[in-house]
Amino acid sequence: VLVGQQYLADPSRSVGAVHPLWTYAHVPHGFTGDATQAIISQIERFAPGFRDRIKGIAVRSTTEMSQYNENYVGGDIIGGASTPKQLIFRPRVAFDPYSAGIKGVWLCSASTPPGAGAHGMCGSNAAERALRYLSRR
User: Fold this and answer.
1) Domain boundary among 57, 75, 93
2) What pLDDT, on the 0 to 100 scale, is given for residue 50?
3) pTM
């Protein structure tokens, strides 16, 4: 279970003393159930009393993930195969994986190196490339 507390960096996400908590959990391909209680139980193992502090829950199923973003095939946020070739040459074979191939247009997502799971690194790397490009203009 991956847990995010984005309100720590952006307090505007909180309302008074109520703070949002974002979670993500891997489920098997084709999963159609609801893993909400399993996720809550796992968090409760490490943060006793967590369950009692929940004010509301919003859940997005694997099907809803696919509908939300067509790149999330089957609800998979990785955006494609995690083979060594794909980790280096995604989303396409190019000298600069962050360039869209159009001058001044940059890509940053789980589909660019270092890929999903390195949260924030794809955007950071793309921003560095864009800043380097802008400084040469």
Assistant:
1) 75
2) 97
3) 0.66
Residues 24 and 67 in one domain: yes
Domain count for the chain: 2
DSSP 96: S
pLDDT tens across 41-50, in order?
A: 999 999 999 9
Q: Quick one: 52 and 14 in the same domain?
A: yes
Q: How many residues does the chain have?
A: 137
Residue 90's alpha-carbon distances to 19, 36, 103, 116, in angstroms, are 36, 32, 19, 11
67 and 15 within one domain: yes
- How many angstroms separate the CA atoms of 15 and 17, rounded? 6
**DSSP 3-state assignment of 12?**
helix
The pLDDT score that the predictor gives to residue 113 is 83
Domain interval for residue 38: 2-75
Whether residue 80 contacts residue 88, with contact meaning beta carbons closer than 8 Å, is answered with no
Tokens (6 digits) for 43: 């968090």
- Say how far apart CA 27 and CA 24 lie, in whole Å: 10
Coil, helix or strand for 2? strand
Torsion angle defined by CA atoms of residues 107, 30, 55 and 17, in that order, rounded to the nearest 10 degrees: -20
Q: Would you state the pLDDT for residue 70?
A: 84
